[in-house]
Design brief:
Distance between the termini of chain A: 48 Å
Shape of chain B: elongated
CATH topology of the largest domain in chain B: Alpha-Beta Plaits
Low-confidence stretches of chain B: 278-285
Mean pLDDT of chain B: 89
Number of helices of chain B: 11
Low-confidence stretches of chain A: none
Number of domains of chain B: 3
CATH superfamily of one domain in chain A: NADH-ubiquinone oxidoreductase 51kDa subunit
CATH class of one domain in chain A: Alpha Beta
Largest interface: A-B, 20 and 17 residues
Strand order of the largest sheet of chain A: 1-14-13-17-15-16
Helix content of chain A: 25-40%
Oligomer: heterodimer
Order of helices and strands of chain B: HHHHEHHEEHEEHHEEHEH
Strand order of the largest sheet of chain B: 1-4
Structural class of chain B: alpha+beta
Helix content of chain B: 25-40%
Shape of chain A: globular
Number of helices of chain A: 13
CATH architecture of the largest domain in chain B: 2-Layer Sandwich
CATH architecture of one domain in chain A: 3-Layer(aba) Sandwich
Mean pLDDT of chain A: 93
Order of helices and strands of chain A: EEEEEEEEHHEHHEHEHEHEEHEEEHHHHH
Structural class of chain A: alpha/beta
Radius of gyration of chain B: 28 Å
CATH topology of one domain in chain A: Rossmann fold
């Protein structure tokens, strides 16, 4: 069975919600749409206080090169455009909408019919993806249309589809693959046409045999699309790890996957592309796993963007008294939320609520130079060294030791027998090194 | 005498004499003339090498003074007036005595004033906490209390008070500015020590709207502008919902302290107010 060669760990999978079908969450009374929902420049609001909006109407435009459009996920009235807390507790601009009725803009095809026939040409598909505000649904939220524009002189050979879902607990991609296989395959065909590639490889870890079987069967009509089962290993969902696992190619340090002829997209993104291109439906909702020891009914919800996360937690039956940590994403790469009041954004793939007795840090002991962190680092770095030089402020050494190649997967910290906060220090080092590089350019 | 010993002594002595000769010739040939004043000034300086003057250490500071031939723009904050006067004598120049400064922590978000909403378990680094989240109390401008300023101080002049969770500056402060640079949120400011060590300043740098600031901290500056109106010397500016007192214009009259509804303006080292005045303040509030 294929997998990537360097490093990796295998945490307990805990996929409690794998057998819960996707449930549509009722629309909340009020939504908050943060203007910064993708990597890059925040979108510019197009509505003001008192405006009436319909579902699917564009409410903010991504004007910069790396930016994305935002659409109203509900119909109602714009209460105000003001600051609202984001996942980290900082206040950033957001559009507040009070929900009234449920009126869609007429362009959107809301019928449940499946449309498999592709009528648009490549550039038109990319244009549509841009208009509909599609971003990477795996969590990094890189605007999809930017990823599809191949820089001159480069050629894409493979479209790699990420159905790995290597994070423990999360099941949103798994459920999507089981419930919408035809749509995903059509989305992949659209992406292939947009990129002009002949081959697409879907990588799925073999802890999801049902998804592998179903997608293989659905893709059987299209010889260019291949489903490859992968050995379960974290962080296989990382772009560079997935390329290594599926093609054996290594992306050079500091370069993008296109350097080795690959473009990676998530299955969730493929589904969003299908809805955008075939159904004219912008990215206004997504599938979110709500799970963890604190949740009585681990579930997968189809939720409108902007819904306060507390609504999901209440629906899935959380116990606020015992809750220790609410994590946005999975346990390995997710970040703890500042408050359950924050809204769901395009990049929220899961909400993990851990009980207080689980959510704590072990006491930090001295580094014993056991080199376990080095053996698990999927990027072939030396985490103990990067953490130490960042701690003492030797950012020059950190830069020379390729600190910027770190993908922040957390395998080093997970495996450290001394419970050292390796990734904390490395993140700090990356921040400083980036700052130094920027100041050098100016 | 044993021939081996004799031979060794003669060899070593001759090597010694030869080396001394080479060293002498080289020292003469490649002699670098250095202004003796550099050495003298260096001896006067505190040798803390803190960089507070803006130069890379005390030696570099002395070299820069001697090479520029003026004292304009040079100030050793650690040595203060005394050291600068001595340097003036050495250089034969008039010294303009710079106003003595002190580091001021402009946040009063103590555990009591800004109660923690969440608990942070990451590494003890303000910078890391700053890039990770807004702070335990929720104020995105407030002190994170993890002590980057304490670590940066060479003079043992700033410490975190465990009761409040905030750093406190003591009299050892030399105004070298290391903590000002270390604080990722720019909370610490160098301000003139003031007459009789008396100072008035706004102990808050929150630029959020009043309601948002007050939600996280009861002693935040809410930008109401009362202090601006009451100040007879136009020393207070209100920008981005935040008042700032210009220490050059402030005459330490304390009128602003009385009107501030959130007690965000602090007075330091003043004698207690007369009772009549205090009563009037209470009635006014």
């Amino acid at each position: 069975m294929k997998t990537f060669a360097i490093g990796g760990v295998h945490p307990q999978e805990n996929k409690f919600s794998a057998s819960s079908p996707i449930e549509v969450l009722p629309i909340p009374a009020k939504v908050f749409i943060p203007l910064s929902q993708s990597l890059g420049v925040p979108s510019k609001p197009l509505v003001k206080k008192g405006d009436e909006v319909k579902i699917g109407q564009m409410i903010a435009a991504g004007e910069a090169l790396i930016s994305s459009n935002l659409h109203s996920p509900v119909s109602g009235k714009v209460e105000k455009v003001d600051d609202y807390i984001d996942a980290s507790g900082y206040r950033r601009p957001a559009i507040f909408i009070t929900v009234e009725g449920e009126e869609w803009i007429p362009e959107i095809d809301t019928s449940p019919d499946f449309i498999g026939e592709i009528t648009l040409e490549g550039p038109a598909i990319i244009q549509k993806i841009k208009e509909m505000g599609i971003v990477g649904m795996g969590g990094a939220t890189f605007p999809t249309h930017v990823k599809l524009m191949i820089p001159p002189g480069k050629k894409a050979e493979y479209l790699i589809i990420n159905g790995v879902e290597c994070e423990p607990y999360l099941t949103s991609d798994h459920r999507l693959m089981l419930e919408k296989p035809a749509e995903i395959i059509t989305g992949i065909r659209l992406l292939m046409k947009a990129l002009g590639v002949e081959k697409a490889i879907i990588g799925i870890e073999n802890n999801k045999p049902d998804a592998i079987e179903l997608l293989s069967k659905t893709a059987a009509d299209y010889p260019g699309i291949e489903v490859v089962p992968l050995k379960v290993k974290y962080p296989q969902g990382g772009e560079k790890q997935l390329i290594a696992a599926l093609t054996g190619r290594e992306v050079p340090s500091g370069k993008l996957p296109i350097e080795v002829g690959c473009v990676v997209q998530n299955v969730g993104t493929a589904f969003a592309v299908y809805e955008a291109v075939q159904k004219n439906k912008p990215l206004i909702e997504r599938i979110v796993t709500v799970t963890g020891s604190n949740i009585s009914q681990p579930s997968n919800f189809l939720v409108r963007i902007g819904t306060p996360i507390i609504t999901l937690l209440e629906k899935a039956g959380w116990n606020p008294e015992k809750a220790g940590k609410i994590i946005n994403g999975g346990p390995m790469m997710g970040k703890a939320l500042f408050s359950p009041e924050v809204p769901l954004v395009k990049g929220t793939s899961g909400i993990l609520v851990l009980n207080r007795d689980e959510a704590y840090r072990e006491k930090t002991e001295p580094c014993i130079r056991c080199a376990k962190c080095i053996s698990v680092c999927p990027m072939g770095l030396q985490p103990y060294l990067l953490a130490r030089v960042s701690e003492i402020g030797r950012f020059d050494i950190a830069e020379n030791e390729y600190i910027l190649d770190c993908i922040e997967c957390g395998s080093c910290q997970y495996t450290c027998p001394s419970a050292r906060p390796l990734l904390d220090h490395i993140r700090l080092g990356k921040y400083k090194v980036n700052q130094i590089i920027r100041s050098r350019k100016n | 005498m044993n021939a081996t010993i004799l031979f060794s002594v003669i060899t070593l002595v001759s090597i010694g004499i030869l080396s001394a000769g080479i060293l002498y010739v080289v020292a003469q040939k490649f002699y670098v003339a250095e202004d003796p004043r550099i050495e003298i000034i260096s001896e006067v300086l505190p040798q803390a090498n803190c960089g507070g003057c803006g130069y890379a250490g005390c030696k570099n500071f002395a070299e820069s003074i001697v090479s520029s031939g003026t004292l304009e723009g040079f100030n050793c904050p650690v040595g203060g007036a005394e050291v600068m006067k001595k340097i003036g004598e050495i250089m034969g120049l008039e010294v303009k005595i710079a106003e003595p400064m002190i580091a001021v922590v402009r946040c009063n978000g103590t555990h009591a004033h800004a109660p923690s909403k969440i608990s942070y378990q990451g590494v003890d680094s303000c910078l890391f906490a700053h890039i990770t989240f807004s702070g335990e109390g929720g104020c995105p401008y407030g002190c994170l209390g993890l002590g980057d300023c304490v670590k940066s101080c060479q003079f043992d002049a700033i410490h975190i008070n465990p009761e409040t969770g905030l750093p406190e500056v003591n009299d050892k402060c030399t105004a070298c500015g290391a903590c000002v640079k270390a604080c990722p949120r720019g909370i610490i400011e160098l301000r003139p020590r003031g007459k009789k060590d008396r100072r008035i300043f706004v102990s808050c740098i929150n630029k959020e709207k009043g309601a948002a600031a007050k939600k996280n901290c009861e002693v935040a500056c809410i930008g109401c502008g009362k202090c601006v109106q009451v100040c007879p010397f136009e020393a207070i500016k209100l920008e981005n919902n935040l008042a700032y007192i210009d220490p050059q214009k402030c005459k330490l009259c304390r009128k602003c302290v009385e009107v501030c509804p959130t007690n965000a303006i602090h007075e330091i080292n003043f004698p207690p107010r007369k009772p009549a005045q205090a009563e009037a303040t209470e009635a006014g509030a």
